[in-house]
Amino acid sequence: xGLLQFFNAKDRTFVPLFVTYTGNLVSLAExxxxxxxxxxxxxxxLVKQAQEIDAKGEGYNRKVTVELGHNFITxxxxxxxxxxxxxxxxxxxxxxxxxxxxxxxDIKSIDPHFGKLANQILRGAKALQEAAQLLESxxxxxxxxxxxxxxxxxxxxxxxxxEEATSMLFRDEKDPIExxxxxxxxxxxxxxxxxxxxxxxxIRSILIKYA
Length: 211
What we know:
By secondary structure, the chain is mainly alpha-helical. It has a single domain (3-209), classed as Phosphate transport system protein phou homolog 2, domain 2 (Methane Monooxygenase Hydroxylase, Chain G, domain 1, Up-down Bundle), CATH 1.20.58.220. The protein is built from 7 helices and no strands. It starts with a helix and ends with a helix.
């Protein structure tokens, strides 16, 4: 099947599901940003909210698996569908894990780089949802490439943020326990941007494969 045939045969299952799945990732990223901006007394409520959002994400991931079992004909390779769902799920996991660590580790002072990485995650998640939405039409193939390029740039920005944060952390943090806590959070946040970029790379490979 060529790419033109793929987009002409409108998919009513997997593309809409990925749009919803990535939208859930956006909601989780927004919750993280909110947590970093409010007083700690509001954190338990936001942690609960994040758990509910993450549970929805797991449900969407299972739905992809179920639909793969029920649908003999898919809009693109089954392996690509599975790989895209896996990458989105991994982004959920690292994002949710970061939020939980921030709330549970009782970090004495929030590193400003947490907020910068959280914003980069949110931007990447929104771009990924846009790419999923654009998968509905061949006319959007160039736009999809541009959005994937945008996600790559955000991932590179996040790498730079992580490197800067790590350098400052080892230079300025005198409490070894706090250093370990903050380092773990930074690594988890940065990895979330990697997984979003992984998802964008799967979308790129789909475009190349069906061109």
